[in-house]
């Protein structure tokens, strides 16, 4: 291994640096990435005070967010004179996306953080260790598409890290803040308005009170935005890294079987089966949530981009355009990754059943080998999301899915 490759292996991920080591509010997530001097990457639970309370923080935050967006949507629906007017309101689409993303994040946090966090961390380290064991004695290959995507993902992570203040300013300037809309709706009630008047101090005290409220709301809003961005980035990163690690392991198994070095392959199949079965239901549910959320983002932000053309702030148009591009990139990467995993599964089965592997075996050895090969579909196909129908994606079916989403977006734009 060259010195340049060693420096790359010991490079600390930008996700770890920004959202763990230098997180602006000094609040750490439940898990973190650890890189040792040897370059081995490990995942462990974060050591912090009140860990049980900290594990509930994302759940409380996400529930508060989707309830906030849901309340704002209900108010818009009450104020709209007709369904057509309600459907043409850009705020409804923005808040619907936010509510859906927060609701999907709530389910994912419940499944991964509160239910099986210890199991997920242990299985992730098992996959890392298995990939390292299979890589021993194999020359370093060309970087895969997922490895090249890592550079794009790092750039997106940096952009998202600095995006919350800019997004808040554009949201406030465009009048699409849900909390402000709820506050103005409550001000229409005489009881709430009179209570607020009694709450405010007279004279110059009112000015200092308003300054204090603004100074309290700004960091609170920033914390909510940063936490939402971090949860989104961590879930997308976990999905991409899970698929990349499964693809890497399957590719190494295919190479070893093809090079007649597959004496221990069945042991790795058993380890893979244990890992996949332990988190299989959670992975399937997470894949559904991610694809639904990204599909909704793609449709809604494309609609907003068309509806807000010529109106609203230019910064909001840039944000919506970047959101559409981000959704397309992530969706294309996930579809490609699932399809490649399923293709590698079929390659492993095909190579294991090759009759040339029987050369030099005795009759008893051939019988034992055939018996093990017959059990392979139950061992290899559940890997990651192998049994999930969305994983069986080829280039043609992936194109059909993307064209289907484009057709939906076009129909929605024509209607409105």
TrEMBL record:
<keyword id="KW-0472">Membrane</keyword>
<feature type="transmembrane region" description="Helical">
    <location>
        <begin position="53"/>
        <end position="77"/>
    </location>
</feature>
<protein>
    <recommendedName>
        <fullName>Gustatory receptor</fullName>
    </recommendedName>
</protein>
<feature type="transmembrane region" description="Helical">
    <location>
        <begin position="149"/>
        <end position="172"/>
    </location>
</feature>
<feature type="transmembrane region" description="Helical">
    <location>
        <begin position="208"/>
        <end position="225"/>
    </location>
</feature>
<feature type="transmembrane region" description="Helical">
    <location>
        <begin position="92"/>
        <end position="113"/>
    </location>
</feature>
<keyword id="KW-0812">Transmembrane</keyword>
<feature type="transmembrane region" description="Helical">
    <location>
        <begin position="312"/>
        <end position="331"/>
    </location>
</feature>
<feature type="transmembrane region" description="Helical">
    <location>
        <begin position="231"/>
        <end position="254"/>
    </location>
</feature>
<feature type="transmembrane region" description="Helical">
    <location>
        <begin position="282"/>
        <end position="306"/>
    </location>
</feature>
<keyword id="KW-1133">Transmembrane helix</keyword>
């Amino acid at each position: 291994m060259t010195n340049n490759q060693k420096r790359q292996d010991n490079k600390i991920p930008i996700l770890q640096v920004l959202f763990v080591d230098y997180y602006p509010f000094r609040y750490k997530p439940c898990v973190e990435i650890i890189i040792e001097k040897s370059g081995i990457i490990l995942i462990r639970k974060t050591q912090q005070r009140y860990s049980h309370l900290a594990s509930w923080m994302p759940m409380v935050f996400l529930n508060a967010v989707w309830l906030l967006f849901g309340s704002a949507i209900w108010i818009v629906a009450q104020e709209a004179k007709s369904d057509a007017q309600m459907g043409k309101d850009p705020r409804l689409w923005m808040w619907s996306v936010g509510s859906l993303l927060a609701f999907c994040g709530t389910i994912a946090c419940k499944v991964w953080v509160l239910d099986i966090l210890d199991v997920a961390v242990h299985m992730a380290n098992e996959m890392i260790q298995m990939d390292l064991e299979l890589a021993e004695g194999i020359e370093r290959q060309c970087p895969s598409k997922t490895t090249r995507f890592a550079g794009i993902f790092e750039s997106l992570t940096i952009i998202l890290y600095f995006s919350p203040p800019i997004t808040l300013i554009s949201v406030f300037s465009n009048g699409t803040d849900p909390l402000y809309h709820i506050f103005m709706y409550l001000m229409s009630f005489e009881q709430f308005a009179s209570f607020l008047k009694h709450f405010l101090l007279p004279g110059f005290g009112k000015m200092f009170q308003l300054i204090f409220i603004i100074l309290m709301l700004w960091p609170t809003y920033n914390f909510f935005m940063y936490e939402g961005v971090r949860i989104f980035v961590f879930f997308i990163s976990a999905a991409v890294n899970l698929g990349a690690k499964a693809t890497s392991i399957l590719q190494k198994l295919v190479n070893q079987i093809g090079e007649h070095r597959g004496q221990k392959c069945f042991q790795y199949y058993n380890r893979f089966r244990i890992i996949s079965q332990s988190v299989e239901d959670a992975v399937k549910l997470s894949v559904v949530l991610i694809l639904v959320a990204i599909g909704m983002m793609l449709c809604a932000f494309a609609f907003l981009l068309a509806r807000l053309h010529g109106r609203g702030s230019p910064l909001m148009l840039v944000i919506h355009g970047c959101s559409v591009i981000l959704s397309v990139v992530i969706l294309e990467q996930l579809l490609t990754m699932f399809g490649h995993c399923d293709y590698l599964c079929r390659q492993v089965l095909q190579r294991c059943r090759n009759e040339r592997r029987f050369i030099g075996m005795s009759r008893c050895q051939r019988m034992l080998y055939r018996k093990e090969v017959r059990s392979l579909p139950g061992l290899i196909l559940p890997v990651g999301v192998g049994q999930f129908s969305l994983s069986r994606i080829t280039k043609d079916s992936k194109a059909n899915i993307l064209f289907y989403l484009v057709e939906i977006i076009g129909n929605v734009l024509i209607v409105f």
